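On clarity, I found the account of how folds are encoded harder to follow than it need be. What matters is that the chain and its backbone geometry are given together, residue for residue. The format is easy to grasp once an entry is in front of the reader. For illustration, here is how one protein appears when written out as sequence plus structure tokens.
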Amino acid sequence: MAYLRLRQVCLVAPTLEPVVSDISAIFGLKVCHRDPNVARYGLENALFPVGDSFIEIVAPTREGTAAGRFLERHGGKGGYMLILDCDDAERRRRHAEQMGIRVANLIRHEDYLGVQLHPGDTGAAMIEFNQTRGGESVNGPYHPAGPNWQAAVTNDVSLRLAAVDIEAPDPEAFSARWAALMERPAAVAEGRCRIALDGGDIRFSRAAAAELQPVFARLELRVRSSAAVLAAAAARGYPVHDSAIALCGVEIAVS
């Protein structure tokens, strides 16, 4: 069966700590994997399962990394990557190239293909299509999360990743381009454009006048108690506004 899942978001921090500890404490999440292979890009990372989706934090370990340049260009604002799990990453690579979107990086393992598209062509964030052998079930293998990610799942506080929000000067045109790339329709719901993916939505709204470029501005988590999560964030010194926490360059809304 064909599928395209909103599976993972990647955020950049100047350093992993205290962000990783704070995310664990605020959202009740456990680290399932730290990938040693990201060292080749001058990074270190930590991955948290949120239900069957994931939040990844990366941090530069040296000067001149793509993630470090992203932080500098955006002043620490905005999410870095949207990672979509699919049934045919190679076909989606060909489709992206036919649209004139460059492939920035290919990650190949015996059981895995990750296709990272150039953010200069996608706008707002780097988009990755990936495919893990045997990953048809959301509870099955997912290579980026390590071999035993299921053991780290906890639902005492946070339940799942529900949506991400993109802000753009022209959200209608921008969502239409992403809809063509993802081969899913962009529909208008509750006054904004939305692409429905398996397991989550990408929503598009109009950016403030000061924002000249599209940006991955927000993600939404389903949690057991919004009040408890917001109180935990405030206790750790994070700004809280309108049921959202400002953390790692984005707003994390809880509902």
